[in-house]
Amino acid sequence: MNCSSILTLRLTSLLVLGFTLLVCTAPVLAQGTIVDHTCTDVTEIPESAIETAKADLHIGYGHTSHGSQLTTGMTGLVAFANGGGLGLSHPTDIFAWNNGGTGGALDLEEGDGYGTGWLDHDCGYYPNWVDETEEYLDDPSHADVNVIIWSWCGQVGSQTEQSMIDNYLAPMTQLELDYPGVMFVYMTGHADGSGEAGNLHLRNQQIRDYCIANDKVLYDFYDIECYDPDAEYFGDRFVDDGCYYTGGNWAIEWQDAHVEGVDWYSCSAAHTQPLNANQKAYACWWLWAALAGWDPETAVCDPGDEMVRRPVLRQNTPNPFNPTTTIRFTISETCDVTLRIYDVKGRLVDTLAEREYSHGSHSVSFDADGLPSGMYFCELAAGRQTDVMKMVLLK
Description:
Elements: E1 15-17, E2 22-24, E3 33-35, H1 47-56, E4 58-62, H2 68-82, E5 97-98, E6 106-110, H3 128-138, E7 147-150, H4 161-178, E8 183-187, H5 199-213, E9 217-219, H6 221-225, E10 244-245, E11 248-249, H7 250-256, H8 274-291, E12 300-301, E13 307-308, E14 312-317, E15 324-331, E16 335-343, E17 348-357, E18 360-367, E19 374-382, E20 385-393
Parallel strand pairs: 3-9, 4-6, 4-7, 5-6, 7-8, 8-9
Antiparallel strand pairs: 1-2, 10-11, 12-13, 14-15, 15-18, 16-17, 16-19, 19-20
């Protein structure tokens, strides 16, 4: 299971009502994407998918030095794409990102590294990373955050099979249950030169197997480091985080054989070579586009480059709100649409729409007058597909 066969599974919203029994779960987002070395061709991502990701996603990313490869690579990609690297011809600064999404950029807030601020350190520090995730998401200033991703540094190789469950897989799953409006992205740890028989490889495979078996979203950091851009595999040659393997360095070798500024770009890359951070950045944008609804297997572009895809709810504005807000959504074909609001206990509080809509973008107002402050979930059902977002009423 990889990006050549991304599985976009149905969204789930179970409401069982009775006179004596109420069993319900709040709606959850779609899951089931593995982003690995097969997801590093950034030229395959449609411009419309990039723009949708920037419009819809609000990301919190906790990491330390190894995890910075993603964001330093993303930063370098902006100028590289502007200069026509890889033959890209998108609008200027299409790959821009910042905390807040100002100027039409992707909204991504980096954690405080080894500091004491939001999402500091990385997911090797248990239970700190779990506590900090809860603090971050519970704070009203992060009410729009709908994606959380934590990186590892060097701790995966020291985990046992059980401690990986106790300190990472089980807590991540619990966070998914506690925050159904947020997509949690799993990640593997960086290569350490111990080879396919090493504990690092086994634990990374444990994470990957768990994500495949349970339809999670995985950014496979390790897998990306095991392949060069031509898909030559180095995982069986004791590759490490610097891209060194038995016999050479795959990144340096590839860089030397290709043109800087055309085939690859220089960027600050902690512990590794620029090309590795390039690959990580390309995979990031594949991930963001997939989370926003792009599926390379099924996405179709019309002559106007409007991507035909699953129904998408855009973040309500304003958010937080009091007491009114506007909810926007896009559907790819004319169909029956239902738009409902639930509270955090899964109880239906309002039905905003229940009729046929034509394909395209639409908006509906929600008036929460009389409702208490708190988090609410908006569920869009269009035909047989669903999307969900969270909103915060703050009086």
